[in-house]
Design goal:
Blueprint: H1 2-19, E1 33-36, E2 46-50, E3 64-68, E4 108-111, E5 122-124, E6 129-131
Antiparallel strand pairs: 1-4, 2-3, 5-6
GO molecular function: extracellular matrix structural constituent
Signal peptide: 1-16
InterPro entries: Laminin/Netrin_ECM, Laminin_N
């Protein structure tokens, strides 16, 4: 029995050393409710462009433009806010500010259904990474 307990303790210690002092990553968004006050294609078909090689202050070269329509039967044209947390290779698309300056700032709300204490938050997207 002592051998079994010693073996279990050594196994746990080895597993802890492999991870170090870093806790397991937990995706809190997987069970959350997410909403946005605006989404591309919400009011009908509209165009958006990915600024893949855009350098601020320079003309846009080689824009990749597509259409989005939240009500389209083609799922590839739909980019709802739920895509931001579904864990798939999909994304949420905001409306273009060419449709109005009210789309310059869009609000996203992520309701986790609980109060949490955080030691670190990493916010990342294709063009932005910030640690809090």
């Amino acid at each position: 029995m002592k051998t079994l307990l010693l073996l279990a303790a050594v196994t746990l210690l080895c597993q802890a050393q492999q991870r170090g002092l870093f806790p397991a990553v937990l995706n809190l968004a997987s069970n959350a409710v997410i909403t946005a006050n605006a989404t591309c294609g919400e009011k009908g078909t509209e165009m958006y462009c990915k600024l893949v090689e855009h350098v601020p202050g320079q003309p846009v070269r080689n824009p990749q433009c597509r259409t989005c329509d939240l009500h389209s039967s083609d799922i590839k044209e739909q980019h709802p806010i739920t895509n931001a947390i579904d864990g798939k290779n999909t994304w949420w698309q905001s409306p273009s500010i060419q449709n109005g300056m009210e789309y310059h700032y869009v609000t996203i709300v992520l309701d986790l259904h609980q109060s949490l204490d955080f030691s670190k938050i990493v916010n990342s997207s294709v063009t932005f990474v910030h640690r809090y």
